[in-house]
Write a structure and sequence with these properties.
Length: 484
């Protein structure tokens, strides 16, 4: 006789949830709930748990809604893994070359270049050139991984440790030593990690509309609709330089970031070809760069520009406090949402502190700090340099920085001490901030927290009709930016 499995309630009482569909009870006295409402579960119906009594966070409205229209408000961020033995997306031939002349049992893990999200363990099986390749299969939940569909492990470390200790059948040799990746550590992220944490959106729940704009070799952005909500869908595009791995990495970073001045990340989609798309709150085709280009001089006032600068700086305070580096701060990567709110919208090249950072592309070079150009060194202080260039763009009506200088010459010009001139009609207060961002030594640049203080001070003086100079930044020792 089959034992009956007791169904568990979908949410615990007290859980904070988000409403996924508009809902109006047939009872006219019951309140309506809208997409995006944040509610708290007060009571769950018995015995089938199909209905919940919920209340809006402001406690002004409570009523009964179907459990199916609720999702957990707090989804866990997606975390990738840094492994010395993970070599990223390399060919079968390259893996065999890296294992050549190694001891029996030497191994590495790589991503296949022929099939997205397929990970392979390559093992040197004898003293000659016999390298065998085995697929790593990730099951549901995503943390379970197997080689032979018989032994399952909660993570790669456990799998490798098992095959190091035991001479299990199914692979050609007991694992002995990993080949370290010659490049900096790469992050292994599987799309199933997103499914496990609730970030994978079924294709049946989303519709794609017209192309809004192309980000060139970064990809394309389409309008869309998700459960009745307007969204934007970012794809890699046919000629994109952003790899599937990079899209997943960008998405994983966005799962960590929730701030009013950062574009809201909703989830990812995965089609039959294993192509990844990122779903965010709806953005228009007008970036802050285009907005500044097109608005008239009467609209482009100092108070509005300072407000935009504050929005971006607030978002970057949050990014930096969470130990991420944006690496590509520029007006083209800032969206204008709703009532003239600036939001950081592109994290195409973002990375965690102290982790692998692939080289940036040539078109970014005029926004890059000298240490980033010269040594590929990226820190929150290199983001500060980029923010200074962004400020110059903002107060220069969207002009191109160093327009008369080629990208190949920019490092020599900067190291020679040349800096961008103060934009026309830009106050000395704002230009002081720009110049502080462009100090040659990273330690002499301000933090985002300090810049935010200066901008708030300037905003107050503008509102009061004052234009006293803001004191220049004085470098401090132990400038650790971890709180806002």
């Amino acid at each position: 006789m089959m034992k009956e499995v007791r169904k568990l309630p979908p949410f615990a009482v007290g859980t904070k949830c988000r409403v996924m569909y508009n809902f109006q009870d047939l009872n006219e006295d019951s309140p309506s709930f809208d997409i995006g409402d944040v509610v708290t579960v007060l009571e769950i119906s018995q015995p089938n748990y199909r209905w919940c009594i919920v209340a809006l966070d402001d406690k002004q409205k409570q009523g009964k809604v179907p459990s199916a229209i609720l999702c957990n408000y707090n989804r866990s961020p997606v975390k990738g893994f840094n492994y010395d033995f993970y070599h990223g997306r390399i060919t079968r031939e390259e893996s065999e070359y890296r294992l050549k002349d190694m001891d029996v049992g030497t191994f590495l893990i790589r991503e296949s270049i022929h099939e997205a999200a397929l990970y392979v363990i390559s093992i040197n099986c004898d003293a000659g050139e016999n390298v065998q390749h085995y697929r790593l299969k990730f099951s549901s939940p995503a943390s379970m991984v197997t080689i032979d569909d018989e032994l399952y492990f909660s993570n790669l470390e456990s799998l490798i440790q098992n095959y190091k200790v035991f001479s299990n059948s199914g692979i050609c040799s007991q694992l002995r030593k990993a080949v370290r990746c010659p490049e900096p550590k790469r992050i292994l992220i599987n799309h199933k990690f997103f499914a496990e944490e609730g970030w994978l959106i079924p294709l049946t729940e989303i519709t794609s509309g017209q192309k809004l704009f192309s980000e060139g070799r970064i990809g394309d952005v389409y309008s869309g609709n998700y459960r009745g909500r307007d969204v934007s869908i970012r794809t890699g595009g046919s000629n994109a330089i952003i790899t599937r791995e990079a899209l997943l990495h960008q998405a994983s970073i966005l799962t960590h970031l929730r701030h009013e001045n950062i574009i809201e990340f909703i989830g990812i989609t995965l089609n039959d070809q294993q192509d990844i798309s990122l779903v965010t709150e709806a953005v228009s085709e007008i970036s802050l760069l285009h907005y500044i280009h097109e608005c008239d001089l009467n609209t482009r006032k100092e108070d509005m520009l300072v407000k935009f600068a504050l929005d971006i700086c607030s978002g970057m305070c949050y990014v930096s406090a969470n130990r991420f580096i944006h690496r590509d701060l520029a007006l083209r990567n800032i969206a204008i949402i709703g009532n003239q709110t600036a939001k950081i919208s592109n994290f195409n090249f973002a990375t965690e502190e102290n982790s692998y950072a692939p080289p940036l592309h040539h078109y970014c070079i005029k926004w890059m700090a000298p240490e980033s150009i010269k040594e590929e060194l990226y820190t929150s202080k290199s983001d500060i340099w980029g923010f200074g260039i962004l400020l110059w763009e903002l107060f220069s009506s969207g002009s191109e920085p160093y327009a008369e200088i080629s990208g190949d010459s920019i490092l020599g010009v900067i190291e020679g001490g040349l800096r961008l001139d103060c934009p026309e009609n830009c106050s000395p207060n704002v230009y002081h901030i720009m110049k502080d961002c462009w100090n040659a030594l990273p330690k002499d640049r301000p933090t985002f927290v300090r810049i935010k203080e200066l901008l708030l001070n300037l905003k107050t003086k503008i509102m009061q009709g004052q234009h006293n100079d803001i004191p220049e930044f004085q470098p401090v020792v132990n400038d650790n930016e971890v709180t806002i």
